[in-house]
User: What shape does this take?
Amino acid sequence: MSDHPIPPASAPAVDENQLITERREKLQLLRTAQTEGKGVAFPNDFKPGHRAAALTAEHGGTDAEPLEAQALQVSVAGRMMLKRVMGKASFATLQDSTGRIQLYVTRDAIGEEAYADFKRWDLGDIVGAEGTLMKTKTGELSIKVTKLRLLTKSLRPLPDKFHGMADQEQKYRQRYVDLITDESARDRFKARSRAVSALREFMVANDFLEVETPMLHPIPGGANAKPFKTHHNALDQEMFLRIAPELYLKRLIVGGFERVFEINRSYRNEGISVRHNPEFTMMEFYAAY
Assistant: This one.
């Protein structure tokens, strides 16, 4: 089963509200079953022992026969992105935070009731799977599922699986949806995290002390910018979201710390564009000598 199927020439229009209604009805059935002692609507006791990317890196190059002989037991959890039901056997693609891996689900392996439940699940649902690693006839690394559980019911359908989110403004407003469908978007988040970690490690390695200074300032200072105003009820005092941490960092230098730095948010009530956001992360540092 391929993760990138060829899109059809035309597809029938889908009423999103109807899909949401159907999914809510399925969730209600799960909640009703829970009140009757038949399972849990949102189980939180499943602990995945493996990640998709690590499994692919370690076993993706192993041939089918040696892999079958090892009978490696694995457990994964993630969002179901693709599903293809074929009678008594089905394929599904599970996506976790590291990548994707294929599930091979059969009625004989998980039982008739569990298989009937699986066929009713929707794309976007969070599932947990246990089973053994195998290779399909096309050589794709897969998990031959022996246990399958629905962990969280998805209430909204995923964006078009062939084109993702096309509206750029919608991407900005619903970043979490874009992250589900766009791997490059997730990679940007990871790259930013690595960059901030590298900055922090460099500063600490050079004897800088990381500190946190106030976000609410009685007087805006440290930069020439228009601040956001708020009111401190307990003090009955007008306050400002900080536009820069400069003054408080310098006071720490006065207090005896010779090297300080801060990586945190600042706020400037000014223009907005793809290059400038009124709320942004900034690193500022000071050294006495």
In short: Residues 2-11 have pLDDT under 50 and may be disordered. The first helix runs from residue 16 to 35. The CA atoms of residues 213 and 248 lie 6 Å apart.
